[in-house]
């Protein structure tokens, strides 16, 4: 163990036993290209604990049927488990009511829902939607579509050299034409944790609602939507140790009540005739068609698991990994960390002078290490940074300082091979 790792392990909270937690994730116990797998691509999707795998398995083996439709026993059991999962999500983000939790496919669908159902009916030509320079495409393109549909305009808050939002520019850009602010809680490229409470307060002072893209924040921090006072919060199950294909849109009840359905079909209706259809109550008004039943149940199991481990302990462990990785990566010659914000989550983008990030990712994969390279679905940000791409290591609750040491060794090999 390196001295840095020894120092870190001494300061790790004693209750947080990472080696024990790793055993909850069966996928981690394998070799890739003859090396023990080191999975550092958690920003793209995290691995699943046995509790989630078993909950999905149990659902399909014992309790599976369509939900809200049958009076038979299996349908009642599936409906109960599905609605219990909704309650778990409500508790996890401290929403005021379970009707404020809409199950969707993921962050992307949640944002599209708000763009089409909240923004589109309200926008007039010349109105403005305010986003930021560090958004993922999922929080850019839905707004561009709705701007094309309505004649509204997209305005963009710039970042500074550290990768933080320029709040003085935000204050200037917020104006009487602003109809919605939509921003990421944590940047998937820079790791920046945005001061969302301050941003929300300023928007609310002008009567402007705020959507937070929580895709990267939800696995790293305790989220309390009431304390944040955000109007919408979007996240994906698969980054929260749950299944893919399931995600959540939280919305304040008063706003959701006034929004028209996004998709039409079964489940979202109360009565249908060829002349007129009336719609179901919240949250079902927004859940047309058969939902991802086992996905929601798996997400509920992920939340139970995280509650057992403790989000505060997870956040503390990940902050230690971030500090360790920032120091350790800085020892690699010609490596530059992209994103130096004062408040960061455990996401570290970097470049090595003279080496393409894709080549870095390919070489470290030969050492069993999974990192992501590319534009990370944030092309405007990558362009603003003047880079072709970055490599990115993103850490989860099961990562260790030893894994970071292995990454550093593999990066040294890559650098020597390619420069
Ligand atoms: N970012 C990454 O590697 P979906 O695909 O709907 O689950 O999540 C989209 C999304 C939205 N916002 C942010 C901030 C995100 O990071 C992501 C997903 C992954 O960074 C895949 S591109």
The Rg value, from CA coordinates, equals 22 Å
Q: How many strands? A: 17
Distance between the termini: 28 Å
The chain-level structural class is alpha/beta
Mean pLDDT: 96
Number of structural domains: 2
Specify the CATH class of the largest domain. Answer: Alpha Beta
* Largest sheet: spatial strand order: 4-10-9-8-7-5-6
Please describe the biggest sheet, giving its number of strands, its sense, and whether it closes into a barrel. 7 strands, mixed
At the third CATH level, what is the topology name of the largest domain? Aspartate Aminotransferase, domain 2
- Indicate the CATH architecture of the largest domain: 3-Layer(aba) Sandwich
CATH superfamily of the largest domain: Type I PLP-dependent aspartate aminotransferase-like (Major domain)
- The DSSP helix count reads 15
Q: Segments where pLDDT lies below 50 for 5+ residues?
A: 1-14
Note the overall shape: globular
Report the β-strand fraction as a percent range: 15-25%
Instruction: Give the names of the bound compounds.
Output: ligand C6P
Helix content: 40-55%
3D structure, described in words:
It is a single chain. The two termini are 28 Å apart. Helix content is 41%, strand content 16%. The N terminus is likely disordered. It has two domains: 154 residues, Aspartate Aminotransferase, domain 1 (Alpha-Beta Complex), CATH 3.90.1150; 256 residues, Type I PLP-dependent aspartate aminotransferase-like (Major domain) (Aspartate Aminotransferase, domain 2). It has a seven-stranded mixed β-sheet with strand order 4-10-9-8-7-5-6, sandwiched between helices. Strands 13-14-17-16 form a four-stranded antiparallel β-sheet, covered by helices on one side. It is α/β, with parallel strands linked by helices and 419 residues long. Helix 4 packs across helix 11. The site of ligand C6P has 17 residues, from helix 5.
């Amino acid at each position: 163990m390196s001295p840095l790792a020894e120092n870190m392990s001494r300061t790790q909270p004693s209750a947080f036993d990472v080696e024990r937690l790793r055993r909850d994730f069966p996928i981690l116990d394998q070799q890739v290209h003859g090396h023990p797998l080191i999975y550092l691509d958690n920003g793209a999707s995290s691995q699943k604990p046995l509790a989630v795998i078993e909950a999905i398995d149990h659902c399909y083996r014992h309790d599976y049927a369509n939900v809200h439709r049958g009076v038979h026993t299996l349908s009642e059991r599936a409906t109960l488990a599905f609605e219990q999962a909704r309650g778990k999500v409500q508790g996890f983000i401290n929403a005021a009511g379970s009707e404020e939790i809409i199950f969707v496919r993921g962050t992307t669908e949640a944002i599209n829902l708000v763009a089409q159902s909240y923004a589109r009916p309200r926008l007039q030509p010349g109105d403005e939607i305010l986003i930021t320079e560090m958004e993922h495409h999922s929080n850019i393109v839905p707004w561009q579509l709705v701007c094309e549909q309505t004649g509204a305009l997209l305005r963009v808050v710039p970042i500074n050299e550290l990768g933080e939002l320029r709040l003085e520019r935000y204050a200037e850009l917020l104006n009487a034409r602003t109809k919605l602010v939509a921003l990421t809680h944590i940047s998937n490229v820079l790791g920046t944790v945005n001061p969302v409470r301050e941003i929300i307060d300023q928007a609310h002072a002008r009567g402007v609602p705020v959507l937070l893209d929580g895709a990267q924040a939800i696995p790293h921090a305790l989220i309390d939507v009431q304390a944040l006072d955000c109007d919408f919060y979007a996240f994906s199950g698969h980054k929260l140790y749950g299944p893919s294909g399931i995600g959540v849109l939280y919305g304040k009840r008063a706003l959701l009540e006034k929004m028209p359905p996004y998709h039409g079909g079964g489940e979202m209706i109360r009565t249908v005739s060829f002349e007129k259809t009336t719609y179901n109550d919240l949250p079902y008004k927004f859940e047309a068609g058969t939902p991802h039943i086992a996905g929601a149940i798996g997400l509920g199991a992920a939340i139970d698991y995280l509650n057992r481990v403790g989000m505060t302990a997870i956040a503390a462990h990940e902050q230690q990994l971030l500090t360790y990785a920032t120091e350790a990566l800085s020892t690699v010659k010609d490596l530059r960390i992209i994103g130096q914000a004062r408040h960061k989550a455990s996401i570290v983008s970097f470049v090595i002078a003279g080496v393409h990030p894709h080549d870095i990712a390919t070489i470290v994969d030969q050492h069993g290490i999974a990192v992501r390279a590319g534009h990370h679905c944030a092309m405007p940000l990558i362009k603003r940074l003047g880079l072709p791409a970055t490599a990115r290591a993103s850490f989860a609750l099961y990562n260790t300082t030893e894994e970071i040491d292995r990454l550093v060794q593999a990066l040294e090999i890559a650098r020597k091979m390619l420069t």
